[in-house]
Design goal:
mainly beta
Length: about 130
């Protein structure tokens, strides 16, 4: 089986401190989102049939980030942040099967949709010198 995967993803966020409250700081960010993917695979069964799969994907949108940092001491911060994205996604996949008699069948599928996704919740510790 051969498999080729190419993925590219970019989602930089511009961070800003928005509100400073006693011993804590709230922050948020917003940035562009771009993703491009390509996969290709080929396999052969023991019966002699051959299957080839190809798929491409493209998405673009906005990435959101928000969080809080609490300072239990002047040089230590406990951080919690949440990230999500709003994106338009397009995908195309092609499946080609060839049986041992040489008969080929091809299926093509296209998808287009808008998605709102929760990506991650992160916790951390910051130490300032």
């Amino acid at each position: 089986m051969r498999l080729l995967i190419i993925l590219f993803r970019s989602a930089p966020a511009r961070l800003r401190n928005s509100i400073a409250v006693h011993r804590s700081s709230f922050f948020y960010g917003l940035g562009p989102l771009f993703s491009l993917g390509y996969t290709k695979g080929k396999s052969e069964s023991t019966g002699g049939s051959i299957r080839e799969n190809k798929s491409t994907s493209l998405s673009g949108g906005i990435s959101f980030l928000g969080g809080v940092e609490w300072f239990p001491a002047s040089s230590i911060g406990l951080v919690a942040e949440y990230e999500s994205e709003l994106a338009y996604r397009y995908g195309k996949s092609t499946n080609e099967n060839e049986n041992p008699d040489g008969e080929k069948t091809t299926r093509e599928r296209r998808t287009k949709y808008l998605s709102l996704s929760s990506l991650s919740v992160k916790f951390g510790v910051s130490i300032y010198f």
